[in-house]
# Entry
Amino acid sequence: MKFGIVVFPGTWSDRDCYYSVHNICGQEAIYIWHKETDLTGCDCIILPGGFSYGDYLRTGAIARFSPVMEAVAAFSKKGRPVIGICNGFQVLCEAHLLPGVLRQNDHLQYRCQWTYLRTENNATPFTAKCRPGQVLKIPISHYEGRYYADDSVIKELEDAGRVAFRYSTPAGEITTEANPNGALNNIAGIVNKQGNILGLMPHPERSCEDVLGSSDGNIIWESVIASI
Amino acid sequence: MPVSKQQLEEIALSRKEYNLIVSKLGREPTYVELGLFGSLWSEHCGYKHSKALLKMFPGKGKHVLVKAGEENAGVIDIGDGLVIGFKMESHNHPSYIEPYQGAATGVGGIVRDIFTMGLRPIALMNSLRFGPLSEPHNRYLMSGVVGGIAGYGNCLGIADVGGEIYFDECYSGNPLVNAFCLGIGRADGLVRACAYGEGNLVMLVGADTGRDGMHGASGLASRTFEEVRELRSAVQVGNPFMEKLLIEACLELAKTDWIVGMQDCGAAGLTSATVEAAAKGQSGMDIEVQKVPRREKGMTAYEVMLSESQERMVVIVKKGYQHKVKALFDRWELHSDIIGRVTSDGMFTIRDNGRVVAHAPVEVLNTAPVYRFRPQRPAWLDGLQELDLSKIKDVASGDAGQTLLRLLATPNICSKHKVYRQYDHQVGDNTVVLPGSDAAVLRIQETTKAISMVTDGNGRYCYVNPLVGGMIAVAEAARNTACSGARPMAITNCLNFGNPEKNDVYYQLQECIKGMSLACQKLRVPVISGNVSLYNETRGVAIYPTPVVGMVGLIKDVRRHCSSGFKQAGDIVFLLGDPGGDDSIGSSEYLELVHGQVSGSQRIDMEQEKRLHTCLIKAVERGILNSAHDCSDGGLAVALAESCILGNIGFKGALSVRGRLDAALFGEAQSRAVVSVNPGSARKLEELAYRCKVTVTGLGAVHGSRFALKGLLDLPVSELDRAWMNGL
# Structure
């Protein structure tokens, strides 16, 4: 299958995404410059991490107006898979393809560290290869990663099983200490109503080989590959 | 043009230097020319006070492709057609005035030095020094500096994998901010900072030029710290997003054959970028300042040439290719303007709307005078190096545990995770050993290799004994890379010193360089780049002489690398190296923390040091070691405790103490490392150590959840962990 990796000015996870889906998972991958609007041939679109347009305004607030985003919206409307990682998640929220926002971490600092994610729903195309409740070791790297939405949205997400991943302890317990940024309900990743758009703050493309400390991120790519 | 004293002071040139300029030009310089000389003949650009001494550094090696001083950074060959380039640079003065932007633009500058050469920056490190955090102003400086490094570096997508932070009163009001960057590329893809070929075009790319950073090189870096308070406008403001675009665009451009050279605008801005490129290409240049896009109206030619506005690059474009180059930058939404052309007359000509405002030989501009001062061994060194052990109370065995906890919690030893977790250290999918171990390890994609890197420098050692301190700076950095299993390849350095015009400071500078050079020769590690920061003093008091070494080593097989934490219960723990005598508490962290004393020189035997490295590297390469951690600040007890904390596991053993207990536990005798091995490999290690002529002493075993040295210490690892993790 073919992954399309969107590159905004300021994106930096593009090369790591390419490396993990192409070199490690053996799939075809192409870069898509943010001004392009033709996604023909792509089976899954990745919006990688970084600081699109420097994130000098709200994170992702400018990138959502890039020409490629209309194409991404159309692509997703056909039910095809889209993954937004870190800044990509922020862009998806700004583009209203996912609900809620990513606010500044509650401790007001950038945070780069390993986190543990408990799989909350393994019935999505992104988590199908996870065991129920499987804990994945995947790192975060962000300043604005505190997932927030109003009560009704949170209730809707929880009721519909749309929380894909929650920050947990290595043993899978959901605790305040395991939450690296103050996200509501320890939310690390969510899916849209149709279940074909995933946004998550942690970086699966960084945990793609044991030599880097974990290869758990590949489970997400492999799930998508199996779903196509 | 008669020149006033005030004018000369503004650009930090002496009357004598002015007269030299007049005699070389055969006339009075114009106003613009004077500005050019002020910058290019500053210490920061011209190394006029240190050049004579820097010649001591060994610079050659069979794997060295670009030597120190030849380009923006030194480059070494790591095989497989790949090369790495690295350099470290100081941004001390700006960081004192405006910590966030000072540190941020320090990162920006060093990153440009690397990608200018066509190398993709993949790793950053920072070596920082502050005054004690008990003073609010020092806390303000540190949080600003760390914030600036994080804010700028994280935006670029370059892994910030380590460094060090030390605190001492001497850095109050004189913080040190040294930034290291390493890049990788193909040997045949290197770009030189060179301008040649008459008619080729000089293109300025990136940010518009403003009045920020005027006199950064000549003014800031040549003044002591209390003078620079007034010079806030000399600090630049960084735009990491623009830098990220420049990285990608310039690396794309480096792959084409459309250019002859590329140079970043660093210290002294457009002036040094163009003059240095012309000098390297033995050509001339003709520049029209009106073509330089500006951020503000009314800027003079002088201001345009000396502005240190950030995120600007000079590209020397082959004639006829300018449209292609411009299209490339347009795609990245970066400005690019042709501001002049390369000439063959060897003259540096600047025009303002056609009118010539400067016209001087490139050679003269680029050749700063070289000064040698009279080094004089300060009389106070004798007293400082003496250590009267009879006046220092040994630690009672019942107090050893409390003393260890105090040491683990002291800011100089404790965990720095509160700092490095703010830096993105994993982007790039290369980081194998994260910050917190002796050295960071990054694998090289699509090969089996990895590189190990570390920064190190102990100002206290250098203050007490500059020669030995200089040697230890290199030795310890190499020891750290050896602990990770890497063969030391080359170093870069930042030399942070006081005012070199003072004889004792010049002596410190000379002795430190001599010591570093001796160590480099012994370990066969060339110096491939570096930077000098002088005038680090406030109210006449200089900082500790603080040379910082950035060391890079090569690991042949990434699967065979090593980190500091103990790995599994049952492993046997050894000390490699000689235990050291009672005087090993000299200039130690223990002596200062517990006895409030800074005195007594450390000693080092470089032969012994080299043998230890050989033993460590072979042991890792043969897969014998499960962990290796060098004994440095806080001595053996701290090294063992840290291996426990990092491995989240206990240790049980014994130590035979012949002399002083404090020296045995907390003495900082050099050339030692704590290692752990599978019980089945213990014999192999002992044999290897014997063959390498390294003393090996069994200490105990990895065991349980307590740190216990029979009859001396017995503490739960969780308590050590709490002290160590919460020190900052």
Residues 27 and 103 of chain A are 34 Å apart (CA to CA). The mean pLDDT of chain A is 97. Residues 14-24 of chain A form the longest helix (11 residues).
